[in-house]
Write a structure and sequence with these properties.
HIT family, subunit A; two-stranded parallel ribbon; alpha+beta; binds zinc ion; five-stranded antiparallel β-sheet
């Protein structure tokens, strides 16, 4: 039996979204139009490709919980989090498996995973992380066509009595509050990088190596 969130109003959107016999128009009407076009509601299409297509920094990007988008990839909040601060890191292109990616894209994915860990670390100060990929539906991938890395903060004792006894997780913070907190952390990390004399960005290759290496 899998864990369920105790308080998770966004869960209803997800459940409505996977009802197979319900027309999209009826679903959107039922949601008062507010969530019309929600990527998780799409019958076809890929919410990661759709997130990659919106302008970074726009209201639409925030609505899609996008934290960062660069030429090769993106970092966004998981709309169905295991815990506050649960991020997804994905390539910008629709690829299902690591061997389908070019080596520079894979290397960049690792850089984004590293940045995601830093962002969650600064925002939430967790004591550990689970970072990983679910490849294929049988392995738990909710969106098997577009690979994405889960970055999940962990704390000592976060398997609390609710989870131990009731198979229930408590997600204490709204997604909007989480987005604000994580975005602040990202801005602080990027400002810190910008003030560093040697450019540490992953696209600069050897520029970040120390002298004499
Ligand atoms: Zn995609």
């Amino acid at each position: 039996m899998g864990n369920e969130n105790l308080w998770a109003p966004w869960r209803m959107q997800y459940i409505r979204g996977i009802e197979p016999d319900r027309p999209m128009a009826a679903q959107q009407q039922a949601q008062g139009g507010e969530q019309a076009g929600d990527p998780m509601q799409a019958e076809t299409g890929c919410f990661l490709c759709e997130a990659a297509a919106v302008a970074p920094g726009s209201d639409e990007a925030r609505r899609r919980l996008l934290l960062l988008r660069d030429t090769r990839g993106m970092i966004l909040l998981n709309r169905f989090p295991y815990t506050s601060g649960h991020l997804l890191v994905a390539p910008a292109s629709h690829v299902a498996d690591l061997p389908d990616m070019a080596p520079p894209a894979r290397a960049h994915l690792m850089e984004l995973m590293t940045l995601a860990e830093q962002v969650v670390g600064l925002a939430y100060a967790p004591q550990g992380f689970n970072i990983g990929l679910n490849l294929g539906r049988c392995a738990g991938a909710g969106l098997p066509g577009h690979l994405h890395v889960h970055v999940v903060p962990r704390w000592n004792g976060d398997t609390n009595f609710m989870a131990a006894l009731g198979q229930i997780r408590v997600v204490p913070q709204s997604l909007d509050e989480s987005w604000k907190q994580l975005n602040q952390a990202l801005q602080a990390i990027e400002a810190d990088h910008d003030s560093t004399p040697a450019d540490q960005s992953p696209d600069k290759g050897d520029a970040s190596l120390p002298p004499g290496s």
